[in-house]
UniProtKB/TrEMBL annotation:
This is Fe2OG dioxygenase domain-containing protein. Keywords: Dioxygenase, Iron, Metal-binding, Oxidoreductase, Vitamin C. Its cofactor is L-ascorbate. GO terms for molecular function: ferrous iron binding; L-ascorbic acid binding; peptidyl-proline dioxygenase activity. GO terms for biological process: cellular response to hypoxia. The lineage of its organism: Bacteria, Pseudomonadati, Pseudomonadota, Gammaproteobacteria, Moraxellales. It holds the Pfam family 2OG-FeII_Oxy_3. InterPro entries: HIF_prolyl_hydroxylases (IPR051559), Oxoglu/Fe-dep_dioxygenase_dom (IPR005123), Pro_4_hyd_alph (IPR006620), Pro_4_hyd_alph_FE2OG_OXY (IPR044862).
Length: 200
């Protein structure tokens, strides 16, 4: 899917500055309301296809309990988000020489009681994940519903990021983070901007 430009609501200069200074950035009001509605509909109509993310190579992991669906070409609405992240990757490459080449992404659903314990998406540079992104696509959220992203920035400071609807959180994939236990169904798209030579 071809996306010619980033949404007008994305302040790319601020995003680049926040990534440079702190290792993470937030984009609020990321997409128009009609796109958000279509994306939520696409996600929720496929919930029966989601699978436990905790099972890897036949082994049940204890650090996460969410459910996921990898985004494939037939998920046309979500593909627009992936294409937009590809365009963002070009900006990141120009600014930081990251060599990002691809985006991998999946829908994620945290049911009440589900969580993702402290981890890094790219521990000891063992994979090609350079920048991690989470787009919150549930239509409403309250602070006491849990599901926050708890993140340690590149300076060692901890932050609690609320999963506000239509928000994108992006951060260096080697940063320590967790998803606090959700008390309501929490929907998102997790995506990684990948490179063959991570240099953060």
């Amino acid at each position: 899917m071809l996306v010619s430009k980033l949404p007008a609501s994305w302040n790319i200069d601020q995003v680049l500055d926040d990534l440079d200074q702190h290792g993470f950035a937030l984009i609020d009001h990321a997409y128009p309301a009609d796109y958000v509605t279509n994306l939520v509909n696409e996600c929720t109509t496929h919930l029966n296809q989601f699978r436990e993310a905790a099972i890897q190579n036949g082994v049940v992991s204890k650090i996460r309990s969410d459910h996921i669906l990898w985004i494939h070409p037939e998920l046309a609405v979500a593909q627009h988000h992936v294409a937009t992240l590809s365009l963002l990757s070009e900006q990141l490459n120009q600014a930081f020489y990251l060599g990002i080449r691809e985006v991998e992404a999946h829908f994620a659903c945290y049911h009440a009681g589900e969580f993702y314990a402290l981890h890094r998406d790219n521990p000891q540079q063992k994979n090609d994940r350079v920048v991690s992104t989470v787009y919150y696509l549930h239509e409403q959220w309250q602070d006491d519903w849990g599901g926050q992203l708890r993140l340690q920035d590149k300076n060692g400071e901890w932050h609690i990021i609320q999963p506000q609807p239509n928000r994108i959180a992006l951060f260096q994939s080697d940063l320590l983070h967790e998803v606090i236990e959700a008390k309501q169904q929490r929907l998102s798209i997790t995506a990684w901007l990948r490179s063959g030579n991570s240099i953060w």
